[in-house]
Design a protein that fits this description.
Layout: E1 3-7, H1 10-21, H2 36-47, E2 52-59, E3 62-70, E4 87-94, H3 104-117, E5 124-127, H4 134-142, E6 146-152, E7 157-164, H5 165-174
Parallel strand pairs: 4-5
Antiparallel strand pairs: 1-2, 2-3, 3-4, 5-7, 6-7
Helix pairs in contact: 1-2
């Protein structure tokens, strides 16, 4: 599948995102009760943050997923692990659909990882999903992530996992 990425526009995209982040399948995004203005405010803050960036993933020109890239030395994981040069944090959310396509979410995370590793400065991708989110743990493993340990974040118990460029390339070759 062919995906493209574009920077998220908090003002233009907030309504679309609101439908995604408040959907029952997005419970681990922790915005279930958000109002449209809450979503806009959240993504305006990200847009203004030099260490955190949000992108929409497009398939045939249509937005189908959200990807956030952040610097874990400055956001999300400060004090929870020892960051290494070239570490990049990532979150992603696939848009809800009434017509799921088998393998779509795996194609999305594969495209996200390839996109992140296109930057020669990215040595390792770091994720910290909720420990209860077994579906995303399986997806992460499929693209090469290796869990390190559970950590306690203010909002959740998380599974800290890492994926190097080499681990990703090996996982993609296996698939």
């Amino acid at each position: 599948m062919n995906f493209t990425f574009r920077p998220l526009d908090p003002l233009k995209d907030a309504e679309l995102l609101h439908g995604w982040v408040t959907h029952p399948k997005a419970r681990f995004w922790m915005m279930q009760d958000a109002k449209p203005e809450d979503v806009e405010r959240t993504y305006m803050a990200i847009a203004a943050d030099e260490h955190h960036h949000a992108f929409l993933g497009l398939h045939h020109g249509e937005p189908v997923f959200l990807m956030e890239r952040y610097d874990p030395a400055h956001r999300e994981l400060v004090g929870l692990y020892e960051p290494e040069p070239g570490d990049v944090g990532m979150h992603f959310l696939v848009a809800p659909t009434d017509t799921p396509v088998h393998g779509f979410t795996r194609a999305v995370i594969t495209a996200i990882m390839a996109h992140l590793f296109e930057d020669p400065g990215t040595n390792r991708v770091v994720v910290e999903p909720d420990v209860r989110n077994t579906a995303v743990h399986a997806l992460n493993e499929a693209v090469g992530f290796v869990p390190e340990r559970e950590i306690q974040k203010p909002e959740k118990r998380a599974l800290l996992s890492f994926c190097t460029r080499e681990q990703f390339e090996k996982a993609v070759r296996r698939a």
